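#struct-pred
JK: can someone run the complex with zinc ion? inputs below
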Amino acid sequence: MSDYAMYHALGEGAPGSGDPQRKEEANAFRPPIAASPAGYHQSGSPAYSHTPNQYLGAPSQNTTPAQQQGYFPPQPPSPYHSEQDVNNLTAQMGAVGLGVEAAGQPRQNKKKNRHAYHNLETPGGTSQAFNGMPQSQVGTPTQFLNQNSPQVGGAQWAQPQITPAMSQFPAAAGHSFAPVSPASGMQHAARPGEASSGAFTAQSTQGRVDPEHIPSIPKSRDGPAKYYLEHVYPTMEHHIPPPAVVPFVAYDQGNSSPKFARLTLNNIPSSTDALNALALPLGLVLQPLAPLQEGEQAIPVLDFGEQGPPRCRRCRAYINPFMQFKSGGNKFVCNMCTFPNDVASEYFAPTDPSGVRVDRLQRPELTLGTVDFVVPKEYWSKPPVPLRWLFLIDVTAEAVNRGYLDGFCEGVINALYGGENDESQDAESTKGRLPPGAKVGIVTYDKELHFYNLSSSLDAAQMLVMPDIEDPFVPLSDGLFVDPKESKAVITSLLTQLPNMYSEFKNPEPALLSALNAAVTALTATGGKIVCSLSTLPTWGPGRLFLRDDGNMHNTDAEKKLLTTEHPGYRKVAQKMVESGVGIDFFMAAPSGGYLDIATIGHVSATTGGEVFYYPNFHSPRDTLKLSKEIKHTVTRETGYQALMKVRCSNGLQVSAYHGNFFHNTFGADLEFGVIDADKAIGVMFSYDGKLDPKLDAHFQSALLYTTGSGERRVRCTNIVASVSDGAAESMKFVDQDAVVNIIAKEAAARITEKSLKEIRGALTEKTVDILAGYRKNFTGNNPPGQLVLPENLKEFSMYILGLVKSRAFKGGKEPTDRRVHDMRMIKSMGTLELSLYLYPRIISIHNLDEKDGFANENGHLRMPDSVRASFANVEEGGAYIVDNGQVTLLWLHAQVSPNLLEDLFGAGQSSLKGLDAFQSALPVLDTHLNAQVRNILQYLESSRGSKALTLQLARQGLDGAEYEFARLLFEDRNNEAQSYVDWLVHVHRHIQLEVRGRRRADTPDTIFG
Ligand SMILES: [Zn+2]
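RT: done, structure tokens with the ligand placed:
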């Protein structure tokens, strides 16, 4: 395994590398549509022939850990993990009477079924109902989700059904569940159910509390991550998606992949009252352009010509797998509004005797949950063209002096033409990274605006200065937007020279609003995307801003104002952009740590569907790698523009709120996006306008009308289905923790302009208590009253909410408003993966890696070490840790870290902490085992995250400022002016008990969460 060929092979095959050969192989992952999805569990299934379940038999498991070359001798118990701490915990937990576990009770009991992927099919049940499609006139097709679902209620609910997925789930094993030879899917299905409470109970043994006993987010991620290395996620069979942080290959069976849509409840109570008993939000997190993973089939693009895709005449829902064909194929019944539509003659196909259209398997729109429809002219507001990118570059003194202009220009070159590392690959890199037809323009600004003619017929770019910043116009029509391939020489030479050119002028003040107005004028005819850099507060010309945050307004009413903007100029330009199909990403740096008024400027991004990349203490060259990677990411990720979104749902439900970064004119209108990209998510809340029929399923469809980067007008259709039940107990089993946390976080972020931070934190606590007390009151009758009982699927929920309370957006204490408002808007647009990481970091210890960690296993999948809980109690003396929250990645090094480790990691001679270069942002490429392991691990982390690039920042104990960030991210400890995880659980538990006894008085009226 220490063979470097393996390492390199791994590197090339990593997700996103685009190696065509790997892709072909990976496509075999997906069985042909014709295969019954139920075949997933059969050993002979085509899906399985390529993914032998060898995980459990992997020789790498349980072999001797390779500690002979460990970097430090076996440690005595960590000094941070002292008896005293444990006793203290015990006292705290004891005080609220946490249930006492019988001594010697095997730990596995609690770990079993930690992810109860309830398959609605009872073991041995018919697979007929689960072939993924509601088939008209077969049985009671629309009930397929409920058909075989055991009716479980009351005490019975504590015995979850064992499903094939659960029983072979490595997470559940955790300790010793490792059959010698892998069983077939059917064998697993036949396994007898093992006793489990179906709920987590906090336990203590003989009066002592092991902090390791409280629910662990790292464990909740590591087990599923291993499982999904070797298994696909079939979207109709399992009704709780994998944890959002876990990479997985989804197999679309008609229900959209969780990457595109996650419901908070995959089984919905039939009435408001039943939902209220749960206190859980009914919401949907949509990420319509989410990236796919290697091994997943591309979203099909379907063209119905002039007619456009078939739609329901009454509610305008798009054709989807859940619409039923009747009358021999002449009618289709809408799954949203039940209206029987006529099938247009062009779309007619007869149904077979079982009521299924004979051509169903050839029609992706009838078999897949996520499809793209090409749409005809009536869906256009202007003729779609390939996306125009306008780089709007700050050339003021601060940008020049601090190396920010240099870094930004380099980043743009890298984004358009690839870095030096990519040159060797093939002809692709010289063809450029933008889709064919896309065009690029460059405008720079300080207190004037400078336009550039980039025509390929010129030897060098021509600059035109626009001094009129009150009423700027665009001084050239041809040559502003050019083909980046044709004008490569002109563009690269201009970008290379800009830093030098403006080092002579050094205007201190940028006229940002004028630049934005000019940019939107240049893009009005076509729409497009602006990528704008800014390095200082724009204090020149119209829309000049001033220092609003003097640092003295925390915990005052004035603070709320700092988190929003009433500036008419910025509001107006944002609206104009949306109307023109234009969106903007800002790259904002504050090299001197100064105030930038992100509340005002970032408003333009938030309204137009864009994003702010913020470098609060930009340091060149340390941060130029991150800057460059993030510019490249923004330019190369899937981006649509001029977009409208509509979310439809079944009769009985209605949309009650939207949360995200978009423009919403009036409630009921479509959401408008100047631009939307792969990383952006929207939260949608639903309420009841009637009672749902438990015999029917609830359907949701989001339709995003957008123009692709290559200039095609399309609708991205995302369909998702949930079963409906009378009681709330059934729903509790199908809770998606990541979706619940995401919706609550988005709702909280949306209130930050109305409520004080203190009120929001209070409301988050109340909401946590409401949800857990609701569960305690309704579903856990048999547990002793003093026991803290957590729902199986919401075990880590409290910790995630604590992470939210400690986040920069909501934390107590001083925090620059720029950072607060930036993080708050980010939360509003974050998908479930990115938010989960943000609320609880991944921590990997690299001083005690197994020698096989960080290399491919025999199936070619990277073997990741288990992650570490975010508490200093878990930090070992002499240790080295990677801490990654999806935004920053720290390499924390203990003061007594082994010199050998440093040399293995950083190179010969780099044996002292002090001697390391504090500003390095990546590891050198070395021939040592450890260096390769860590680079592979970082590559893995980089492949599963949101929009922010992964670069390393050193946090050496006692030496670097980044150590404060390390301490801040240890969310299980007492920090960020909030409790430790244990104290928080104790607090929540106390309030649950008061609530259960009817003696709770809410400190804050819960007016924040609907
Ligand atoms: Zn309809």
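RT: quick notes.
Residues 312, 314-315, 317, 334, 336-337, 339 surround zinc ion (CB under 6 Å).
The chain has 32 helices and 31 strands.
JK: thanks, will look after standup
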